[in-house]
Structures are given as C-alpha cells and as structure tokens.
C-alpha cells in the first residue's frame, strides 16, 4: 500500500506543471496519502531537498506558469551510484512512490528508479510536444497561444512594410509547435524537422509570392535548430521582393499562465498518476490519446515513433 508519494518536476519547465503538482497533491491527500514535494528535479532527490505538501501548499498555483517545486537537470543521475543514493534518501523519508513531471529524459530516470523498487509514474511536461505516447503534452497549448499571439502582432506590422517575417519557435526537433502555429496564423510557409530545409527552395517560393502573387507580406514559421534565421532574413532581403526580418520568440514561449486546456490536461493526468500508484503500478507514463487519459509502460512509449502529422501538413498546403 502506498502511504507517501513524492512529486518532482524535471527538465525544461512548462506552463501547467503547477496544475499537475496540485492535482497529484490534492488527489493523494484526499485518499489519505501523504505528499512530499521534491525541489529541483532529481537534484533535490540527491540533496534530500524535500518539503511536505498540504492542501494549502498548492493553493493559488493553478493559474501560475513555471513550477513551484523548481526544475533542474542532473546529468549524473544516469549513474547507478547516484540513483542508489537517491533511493536511500527516498526510503529514509518514507517515500514509497514518485510522480515525475518532465520530458523523455526525466522518464528514463523514472524508469531507472522503478527498476530499483520505487514505483514511478511519468507525466509529460514540456511545451515541445515531443514525447511519444501522448497526443499532447502539458504546456504545449499555452506555448501555442503565446506563439499565435506574437505572430498575429508581427503580421500587422509586416503587412504595413512589405516584409517577410521569419519567426523561430521552439520544439526541440519536433515540428508540432511550428506547424500548429503556422496553421493557426495562416502563415505562408512552415519549416520543421519533418518538412526538411532547402534554402534555395525557400527563397524561390518567397520570390514567387512577392512577384507573381504580389503578396504584401509573408510569414514563415520555422522550428528552432534548423538554420540561422538572421542570416536567412538577410538573404530574403537580398534575393526576393520582401524585406526579411527574423524574430526568435525564445523563452517567452515557456512562460505565462496555463490555458484552461493545459490546466484540464494537467489535472486529469495528475489524478491518473495517483490512481496508478494506488493500484501499485509503476514504470508507466500517462498520456492523452483521442481525448482519453491513458497510460502505458515508459519503455514502450519511448520506443514508439512520434505522432505522424502528415494530414496536418497536407491541410497546411491546402490552406495556402
Ligand atoms: P526537456 O524535454 O525539457 O528537455 P527532459 O526530461 O527530456 O525535458 P533531460 O535533460 O533530457 O530533459 O532530462 C532531465 C533529467 O532526467 C536529466 O538531467 C537527468 O537527471 C535525468 N535523465 C535523463 N536521461 C536519463 C537516463 N538515461 N537515465 C536516468 N536519468 C536520466
């Protein structure tokens, strides 16, 4: 029987993590289970930086971005010796199960602990939507709202100045944030790890939009880590009828009050995590598939291919 659950947030933060911590805390307490918040991800496990959570510890957190527990990366956590120290700290504090909110790296840590006898459940917390085993991650919807708001504003000024705005969004090798932003904002072009990148092709397309279609402006949404967007903007100015401007949205995408969709998702997932631990299940991650909250073994999820977005890319092309 599980008596005390630990909860931690790990990797990059995302809006909605607090809603997940809150859900884990309240659902557990309402089932007579104690909850211990662990600070700064696996770093807090190693340092024994724990804090008992009460109903009121998580009051007023639902609408706040970031994570009230703090997050960090601890590369040494891959080492067995460090994991053993963490297990000893957990046992000493009477924590017999753990909810880990983070990305796929954090999931691997959760799996390692489960194999060593501490049941862990992973919740997908990242704006990148790059975790297999779920249609959406906690924070993606909020980041999408931020991107859409920013691109809408850029469009206003771009059309006044015959500009091509090249907007770099996050995604960590996953094109979802760029693709969803591009469709939601009616962008002229989207460049992601899935579309591939050919600079000459991009310039030719923009020349066509400027000269043949006589567009007043163009918006290009591009995923991070693909190319230097400032250099691309310069080439756009030199080689097309548009004046090219690059905007890197950066960490602004990680912040902000979570949208109701993210609050709902985090609350539902937090509840599921506690239910699984109460059933004595560990080594699983929670997802949302076709709007149903689901769970599957972490190693199975990590071995799955990411969502296929072919139909959405086709939709983007058909909306141009
Ligand atoms: P994000 O998507 O925001 O990058 P993430 O959870 O994937 O989130 P990582 O930096 O990959 O971020 O992992 C977070 C932490 O999880 C690491 O700092 C480390 O402590 C732990 N971790 C990562 N990979 C492993 C692994 N293979 N085994 C054990 N622990 C791991």
What does it look like?
- This protein has about 325 residues and is of the alpha/beta class.
- The protein has helices spanning about 15-30, 40-45, 80-90, 105-115, 140-160, 175-185, 200-210, 230-240, 260-280, 300-305, 310-320, and strands spanning about 5-10, 35-40, 50-55, 95-100, 120-125, 165-170, 190, 220-225, 245-250, 285-290, 290-295.
- The strands form 2 sheets. The protein has a 7-stranded mixed β-sheet, with helices on both faces. A 4-stranded parallel β-sheet has the order 7-8-6-9, with helices on both faces.
- The N and C termini lie far apart (about 55 Å).
Task: Please describe the structure with a list of short key phrases separated by commas or semicolons.
42% helix, four-stranded parallel beta sheet, binds adenosine-5'-triphosphate, 320 residues, alpha/beta
Describe the structure in brief:
With 320 residues, this protein is of the alpha/beta class. The protein is 42% helix and 19% strand.
Summarize the SSE layout with pairings.
Blueprint (H helix, E strand, L loop, with lengths): L3 E6 L7 H13 L4 E5 L3 H6 L2 E4 L26 H13 L4 E6 L1 H12 L3 E6 L15 H21 L2 E7 L6 H10 L3 E3 L7 H13 L6 E6 L5 H11 L3 E6 L11 H19 L5 E6 L2 E6 H6 L6 H10 L1
Parallel strand pairs: 1-2, 1-4, 4-5, 5-10, 6-8, 6-9, 7-8
Antiparallel strand pairs: 2-3, 10-11
Helix pairs in contact: 1-9, 5-6, 6-11, 7-8
The protein binds adenosine-5'-triphosphate.
């Amino acid at each position: 029987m599980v008596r005390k659950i630990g909860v931690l947030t790990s990797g990059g933060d995302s809006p909605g993590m607090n809603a997940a911590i809150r859900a884990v805390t309240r659902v557990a307490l309402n089932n007579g289970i104690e909850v211990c918040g662990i600070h700064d991800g696996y770093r807090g496990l190693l340092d024994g930086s724990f804090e008992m959570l009460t109903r009121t510890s998580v009051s007023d957190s639902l609408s706040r971005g970031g994570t009230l527990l703090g997050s960090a990366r601890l590369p040494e956590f891959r080492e067995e010796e460090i994991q053993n120290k963490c297990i000893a700290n957990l046992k000493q504090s009477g924590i017999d199960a753990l909810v880990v909110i983070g990305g796929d790296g954090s999931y691997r840590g959760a799996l390692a602990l489960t194999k060593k006898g501490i049941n862990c459940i992973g919740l997908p917390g990242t704006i990148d939507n790059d975790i297999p085993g779920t249609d959406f991650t906690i924070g993606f919807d909020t980041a999408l709202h931020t991107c859409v708001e920013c691109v809408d504003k850029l469009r206003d000024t771009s059309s006044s100045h015959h500009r091509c705005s090249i907007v770099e969004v996050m995604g960590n090798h996953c094109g979802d944030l760029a693709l969803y932003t591009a469709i939601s904002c009616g962008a002229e072009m989207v460049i992601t790890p899935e579309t591939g990148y050919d600079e000459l092709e991009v310039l030719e397309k923009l020349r066509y939009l400027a000269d043949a279609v006589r567009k007043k402006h163009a918006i290009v949404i591009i995923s991070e880590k693909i190319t230097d967007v400032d250099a691309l903007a310069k080439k756009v100015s030199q080689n097309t009828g548009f004046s090219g401007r690059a905007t890197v949205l950066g960490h602004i995408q990680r912040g902000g009050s979570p949208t109701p969709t993210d609050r709902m998702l985090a609350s539902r997932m937090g509840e599921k995590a506690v239910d699984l631990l109460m059933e004595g299940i560990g080594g699983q991650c929670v997802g949302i598939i076709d709007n149903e909250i689901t769970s599957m073994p972490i190693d199975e999820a990590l071995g799955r291919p990411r969502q296929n977005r072919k139909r959405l890319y086709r939709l983007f092309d058909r909306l141009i």
